[in-house]
Write a structure and sequence with these properties.
The complex is a heterodimer of chains A (about 350) and B (about 270).
Chain A lengths: L1 H24 L3 E7 L14 H9 L2 E7 L2 H10 L6 E2 L3 H9 L34 E13 L22 E4 L2 H12 L8 H14 L3 E4 L2 H7 L5 E5 H10 L3 E4 L7 E6 L8 H11 L2 H11 L6 H6 L2 H5 L7 H4 L10 H16 L2
Parallel strand pairs in A: 1-2, 1-3, 5-6
Antiparallel strand pairs in A: 4-7, 4-8, 4-9
Chain B lengths: L7 H23 L9 H6 L2 H33 L3 H12 L6 H12 L4 H8 L11 H24 L4 H9 L4 H29 L3 H6 L6 H10 L5 H34 L1
Helix pairs in contact in B: 1-12, 3-7, 3-9, 7-9, 8-9, 9-12, 11-12
The chains are: A alpha/beta (about 350), B mainly alpha (about 270).
């Protein structure tokens, strides 16, 4: 009896092992690495579960993992311990990854829906030859504020230095975004690597440090619950917050701001490139894209999806700001590593002042 | 003869998860990105603002240890004198929060301390506040003391239970007042537990990094700086490892001094 049991156990273990090994080479799985809460997965009533739809249509299973900042994603891929077939980083990170030869060229033949992408979003500065990426979303950073707490007109980054809101000002908890705001406030480029300018920004941020709380995703809770008065964050996320707290308002400061583009890329070492391309093509489908865009609240670079949107969304100036405002926006490019290193050291100095 | 074979897996474990990582830290502390010997990491640590963060971290860890000790010591004593059943229940209550993930508990503290959080709402009912609680150094201290308290209670409690009640009664019969009992009986006999407790609280508190980020509104402790150098936009293992190494040395020296006290005290006890 004992022998039979152990034989069965051994057999079961072998099968388990085959299962594991099998899945490594399985052509019908893709590994996707995306920002948290950055794809409609049908968590709530009326939202589309895109992964399930994709599997039903193509038979390809999606293993889905999320990250919460570009740098963390980069470290994961760089370490080489995990293989992904599709990642969705932001512009400057894509430029860095192209530079370091971490991305595969995409075969656009396999993505007929690429024709839906607006011409303005092809060949942007992070991927000038347009060979490595397919835009997923874009958006701007603006000031989100609570109209019950902030009564004066808000139109400038200055508000984040206003002592009246001591302790109720939120600020990006990463050097690039935080310096980006100081750079706009002082009238520099967001892509400066000039040491004098960066040091001037650090001085500006030091003045602000005692007044602020440095946060990232916590911004949602703090703004929705009225715990904080004002925060810089993304237009798309403002729409999500506004749904839960109608007292919130959004403005793009007059000094200009950052416009980001997040795009889909295939990392080197992808096991199922064709599967990843099929998934990209699926996401660019007008109907799927619309469901996803409505869930995300971010702006879409997909012309076919844009045309399907409500006029209200197109015209309220949050997701699709006027050309005049867009001209004052800048996108991050990849900085030389000594500029990044300097910014990181200065950042510690800034936060040491808190 | 005792066989050493059962110990082998533990040696293996120690080698893989303790000694080899330590060697990595040592390697990266002295070797730069270019593979050359460098002291850049240590030089960075000598910057005034970095020293300030370093000292602040040690200071906060020390305060946390003192707060934990002040709360845990009387608590452990009272617990150890209770009925056995009550003791079990009370210990369970001390341990209970540790069954939950530490991050969840920190998020719970965030909700308590927010400007519109539970504490400010309650204070609002009696017409006080709102106070700025979150994003302050006080919030970090509260979070750390709460988080590390069980590590202080457990070792002290376990030595307290071993103190024979008749010793206390005898000293009282011989005319010792409360402080006399504390000084001559309780403190000497519970000292090893106190030392263990201090070690178990101070060491993780000095290198903590999530609590300060979440409750301190992004205030930096040295653990946060180390994290930043390893996973930031421009990873610099050299600096990160240098800081880790110095922090380990400082803690090691601190513990060495503590152990000296420990031995003295034990001898004193024998006399």
């Amino acid at each position: 009896m004992k022998k039979i049991v152990s034989l069965l156990v051994a057999a079961a273990m072998c099968m388990g092992l085959c299962g594991i090994l099998g899945s490594c080479n399985n052509q019908n799985v893709i590994y996707v690495y995306n920002w948290g809460q950055y794809l409609s997965r049908g968590e709530e009533e009326g939202e589309m579960d895109i992964l399930a739809e994709f599997e039903a249509e193509t038979g390809i299973k999606v293993v889905y993992r999320t990250f919460d900042h570009n740098e963390g994603m980069y470290a994961q891929l760089k370490a080489g311990a995990s293989k992904y077939d599709l990642v969705i980083p932001s512009d400057y990170m894509i430029a860095k990854m192209i530079e370091e030869d971490m991305l595969e060229k995409i075969d656009y033949e396999n993505i007929p829906n690429y024709k839906n992408i607006m011409e303005d979003f092809k060949g942007l500065e992070y991927d000038p030859t347009g060979e490595y990426s397919v835009p997923y979303t874009w958006g701007t950073v603006g000031l989100i504020y609570n109209t019950k707490m902030v009564t004066e007109p808000v139109d400038s980054w200055e508000m984040l230095w206003n002592e009246k809101y001591d302790g109720k000002i939120l600020m990006f908890n990463n050097p690039r975004d935080a310096f980006g705001i100081a750079e706009k406030k002082l009238g520099y480029s967001q892509n400066t690597s000039d040491e004098t300018e960066l040091r001037a920004c650090a001085e500006e941020l030091k003045k602000q440090a005692p007044l602020t709380q440095y946060v990232m995703d916590e911004i949602f809770d703090k703004m929705i619950n009225g715990d904080a008065a004002i925060a810089p964050y993304y237009a798309g996320d403002y729409l999500t917050m506004k749904d839960e707290n109608p007292d919130l308002a959004f403005v793009i400061p007059k000094e200009g701001t950052n416009r980001f583009v997040d795009a889909m890329c295939i990392p080197k070492g992808a096991q199922n490139k064709a599967g990843a391309e099929a998934f990209i093509n699926f996401l660019l489908d007008p109907e799927i894209g619309l469901a996803n865009t409505e869930y995300l609240g971010y702006s879409t670079p997909n012309q076919a999806v844009y045309e399907l949107l409500d006029d209200e969304v197109k015209n309220d100036g949050v997701s699709y700001p006027s050309q005049e405002i867009l001209e004052k926006c800048e996108s991050f490019v990849n900085l030389p590593s000594d500029a990044n290193a300097l910014m990181q050291d200065l950042w510690i100095e800034v936060k040491g002042n808190k | 003869m005792k066989s050493k074979v059962p110990a082998y897996p533990y040696f293996g474990w120690m080698a893989v998860f303790t000694i080899i990582p330590m060697l990595f830290v040592l390697y990266f502390a002295f070797i730069g990105d270019d593979g050359q010997f460098t002291l850049d990491g240590f030089r960075r640590l000598a910057d005034p603002y970095m020293i300030a963060i370093f000292l602040k971290s040690l200071w906060l860890a020390l305060l946390t240890t003192i707060i934990c000790l002040l709360i845990a010591y009387p608590m452990a004593y009272i617990l150890s004198r209770m009925k056995l059943n009550t003791q079990r229940t009370m210990m369970l209550l001390v341990m209970l929060p540790m069954w939950m993930n530490f991050l969840l508990r920190i998020y719970a503290w965030m909700m308590l301390l927010e400007n519109n959080g539970l504490i400010n709402k309650l204070l609002g009912f009696i017409g006080l506040g709102p106070f700025q609680l979150i994003g302050t150094t006080g919030a970090i201290l509260a979070g750390m003391a709460y988080n590390f308290l069980p590590f202080m209670v457990l070792p002290i409690y376990s030595v307290m239970t071993k103190i024979d009640g008749s010793l206390i009664e005898a000293s009282q019969d011989l005319g010792c007042n409360f402080f006399g009992v504390l000084r001559r009986i309780l403190l000497p006999l519970s000292f090893p537990g106190v030392i263990t407790g201090i070690t178990m609280v101070f060491v993780p508190a000095a290198s903590t990094f999530v609590i300060s980020q979440r409750l301190g509104g992004g205030e930096l402790m040295i653990g946060d700086v180390i994290e930043m150098y390893f996973v930031g936009a421009e990873p610099n293992f050299n600096t990160g490892a240098s800081i880790s190494l110095v922090l380990m040395l400082v803690i090691l020296i601190g513990m060495g001094i503590m152990n000296l006290f420990d031995k003295d005290e034990m001898e004193g006890m024998l006399i």
